[in-house]
Amino acid sequence: MSKIYDLLKNEKVEWKKLGDVAAISKGKQLNKRDMLEDGEYPVINGGVSTSGYIDMFNSEENTITVSQGGASAGFVNFIEQKFWLGAHAFSVIPDDDIIKTYGYEYDCFNRLLFHILKMNQIYLQDSKVGAGIPSVSKDELSNIEIPLTSKNTQEKIVKTLDKFTNYVTELQSELQSRNAQYEYYRDMLLSEEYLNQISDRICNFSRTQYELRNLLIEDIVKIRNGKDWKTLKQGDIPVYGSGGKMDVYVDKYSYDKPTVLIPRKGSIENVFYLEEPFWNVDTIFYTEIDDTQIIPKYFYYFIENYDLSQLSINPTRPSLTQSTLNKIKIKLPPIEIQNKVVEILDEFQSLLVDTKGLLPEEIEKRQKQYEYYREKLLTFDINSETILDRQTDRQIISDAYFVLLKEAADIVGVKLFDGEWKSLGEFCKCYDGTHQTPKYTNGGIPFVSVQNIKNIYGTDKFISIEAFNEYKIKPRKDDLFMTRIGDIGTCALVENNENLAYYVTLTLLRPNQNVVLSKFLKYLIESKHGKKELDKRTLHMANPIKINLGEIPKLRFFVPPIIVQEYIVAILDRFDALINDVSKGIPKEIELRQKQYEYYREKVLHFERE
Q1: Residue among 525, 43, 535, 594 nearest 354 (CA)
Q2: H helices within 508-561, ranges in order?
Q3: Residues 398/167, Cβ–Cβ less than 8 Å
Q4: Is the pTM higher than 0.85?
Q5: Contact between residue 124 and residue 74 where contact means Cβ atoms under 8 Å apart
Q6: Helix 151-189 and helix 192-206: axis angle, to 10°?
Q7: Angle at 380 between CA 379 and CA 383, to 5 degrees
């Protein structure tokens, strides 16, 4: 019996409403005149950021807050320091009588309430009402049901979930440090002092005189207005506004050269760099950049670093005009120096993934993983035969994270290393390529053979559609090609459903994705074990060497559960990125940690109703 069953077996769960186990209080309105630049205590009105600082507090440290109104209504937070709770948020304080009655520890019960409310955050956000500013009602919050378990079970649940939040916090701190590092170097590289220094070095090296030119933006850039897109036809040109890409595509473009988009109204510091055609609406300018004087990417970094807010002509809604932008002063180095600055800043910026506050896809996956486990354990769903949802992505990044997953998985009853030996034919169909020497055409269906295995989509050979129609088995997405004549065991993944013809030197493998992931099978075949299996069945006396199609299904591999396959694939896929792509570094690991936490939070906070 798994540990999740042991943990939940015979567990008596008593359900109570949040209002019966905690005090729910609304914050107090604060006069903006009381705000201080150097105040000690943050003002929390909900959401993830503070509204300012003040020298007094009305809430203690380690308090749960729930945003009550506005765009962030329903957001659940945990504030670790003393703070002032504003009028647009609730605090949730555990009831002392409940703690004494059940023998709970205050801090543990407090964290349990936080995880449960976090699980209900989407529900709260969807329950907003009101025609003006939608808000969450105290009654709605009070009616959330809380499972009261034994003290021992509660402590195990909280301990597991808190591990994830702690790891995420540590990595978020690291990302903030990387952001600060990037901003520091950006400011330094664009400073007059540094530009003079690098100019001197280049001057001494090349014996060419360089100097900074004092210019206005209008000397090197023409700022153009945007236009409404609604009269245009649908197409493939993206439309941009002050918030970025609008998920609208039209048939014409405003401009098709490298440019910097500068918002005219709204989020005026939200600048964009584009190199592809686009259409811009009237809330955002585009720029025609004289690239004989300034590299477009250099201009982007300059504007990104410039405090555009000081140029706003409207204190209520930030706004910019062409005339104010045109008069911005810039000390412009020569093109050679601009190139060096851009090269350095490009490398630093690649460390940052989505620093605007949006969570990339990976963190969303980890969120689902955490939520799944939270849901499992907080409903006491011990009758479920499937402990792991196959549709939930559970990618793990490194050995350290895998150890963490193993520890948490032990609690919820997942055996990561369960598996069995299988013949390839038990989970994969094998198909032969055409034995006929193809008649090549100038165009048509791409034709691949052993020579193209390293780049199956880069072949320069084609056959007619009529010849391809004679193929009984046509490749489809997630199939694998494997070389079997001349070269043995090199694989290529079929990435889409576009037509591909293949020769007898290749076999087409179609694995059952419920048993083996295509990428994992590729790594299996190309592993040392896979090479040994192939070598045993290869006809080495043949010229060229080959393995017969009938021998391929006999290859034997140890097949672990899907979750382990995903882990291994994630690790192997990431080696190249770790070495060559810094954008897959710290930010990606933070996202994965966050996702892991949220997945397990769902698992351990899920109880079954009687």
Answers
A1: 594
A2: 518-526, 528-537
A3: no
A4: no
A5: yes
A6: 60
A7: 115
Residue with tokens 């107090």: 28
pLDDT digits (tens, 9 = 90+) for 5-52: 455 556 678 889 999 999 999 998 877 666 665 677 888 876 656 767
Return the pLDDT at 393. 31
| Tokens read off for 41 | 């205590």
Confidence grade of residue 383 (pLDDT, cut at 50, 70, 90):
very low
HEC assignment per residue over 339-366: HHHHHHHHHHHCCCCCCCCCCCHHHHHH
Helix-helix angle 361-377:399-412, to 10 degrees: 20
Distances (CA, A) of 441 to 437, 461, 465: 13, 8, 10
Per-residue pLDDT tens digits for 406-433: 544 454 444 555 567 889 999 999 999 8
pLDDT tens per residue across span 43-88 = 887 665 676 778 889 999 999 999 988 778 889 999 988 999 988 8
Of the candidates 305, 307, 306, 302, the residue with the CA atom closest to the CA atom of residue 289:
302
Using alpha carbons, select from 362, 394, 387, 363 the residue that is nearest to residue 563: 394
Of residues 22, 9, 166, 25, the one with CA closest to residue 104: 22
